Amino acid sequence: MLHFIQRFSQASSKMLKYPFTMSMGTRRIDILSLKSSLHQNLFLFFPTSCVFPSFPVCMSKTRWYHTSPCSFKKKQKQVVLPARPPSTITYLPDSPKPALYITLAGLIPFIAPPLIMVMTKTYIPELAFTQMAYGASFLSFLGGVRWGFALPEGSPAKPDYLNLANSATPVVFSWFAILFSEGLSEAIVLVIIGLGIALHVELFLLPHYPNWFKALRILVTLVAFFSFVVTLLLKDIYPEKGPK
């Protein structure tokens, strides 16, 4: 037993003489030191035939492999959206001064009748009729503008069936409004429909007008629409004055 302890202590002292170094930064192992120390220590306890000769070979063939998680997500491409064109109404300041001032003055017959009714707190059929008649006349004027815009040579609007037939559409609505003027509310509704159809045709179906003219058309149509709506509401709110 004492002899076995002495042999074991000698083996331990010999193992301490051989360094076992590992470099974490470069991942290298001193295989030769490990191989020699294992050979000598195992030879002290076991016969030579018991030691596996392939063990150092297996140790020398140790490899380190780097693994990282794979990313299968495709990089999404940033879609650049085209810039939206400015709204048509924003071209209103670009209108020629004479056209702008005359258009603003032409809004007075639309605004004055309902304004007077609100001030007097009475519904006056004569004022409502003058407002409707002015709206019908304005529809006829819009038809003439389209016709005159298509006739000159070099105009973007050609004098074809599409342009000339659409120029007659507002005239038809104004004619029907005058025919049904005895029913004043129905006549006003016809004028409103005619203004809406004319605006739709000029902005979307036949977009040949300059942008400033389209802005003026939007302004006039909105003012006329709200003034007619106010007149129809005042008929039910205020008492009627004068002959029916």
Structure report:
- The structure is a single chain.
- With 244 residues, the chain is mostly helical.
- It has two domains: 2-57, no CATH class; 88-237, no CATH class.
- It has nine helices and two strands.
- It has helices spanning 2-17, 31-45, 54-60, 97-106, 108-120, 125-150, 161-179, 184-205, 211-237; strands spanning 22-23, 28-29.
- Strand 1 (22-23) and strand 2 (28-29) form a beta hairpin.
- Helix 5 packs parallel to helix 9 (211-237) and helix 6 runs parallel beside helix 8.
- Keywords: Membrane, Transmembrane, Transmembrane helix.
- The chain crosses the membrane at residues 99-120, 132-149, 161-180, 187-209, 215-234.
The shape is globular
Proportion of helical residues:
55-70%
Enumerate the spans where pLDDT stays under 50 for 5 or more consecutive residues: 15-32, 42-61
| Total beta strand runs | 2
Number of domains: 2
The overall average pLDDT, rounded, is 76
Beta fraction:
under 5%
Helix-and-strand structural type: mainly alpha
Largest beta-sheet characterization: 2 strands, antiparallel
By DSSP (H or I, 4+ residues per run), the number of helices equals 9
Question: What value does the Rg take, in angstroms?
Answer: 49 Å
Strand order of the biggest β-sheet? 1-2
The ordered string of helix (H) and strand (E) elements is: HEEHHHHHHHH
Distance between the termini: 138 Å
Transmembrane segments: 99-120, 132-149, 161-180, 187-209, 215-234
Keywords: Membrane, Transmembrane, Transmembrane helix
InterPro entries: DUF3429
Organism: Urocitellus parryii (Arctic ground squirrel)
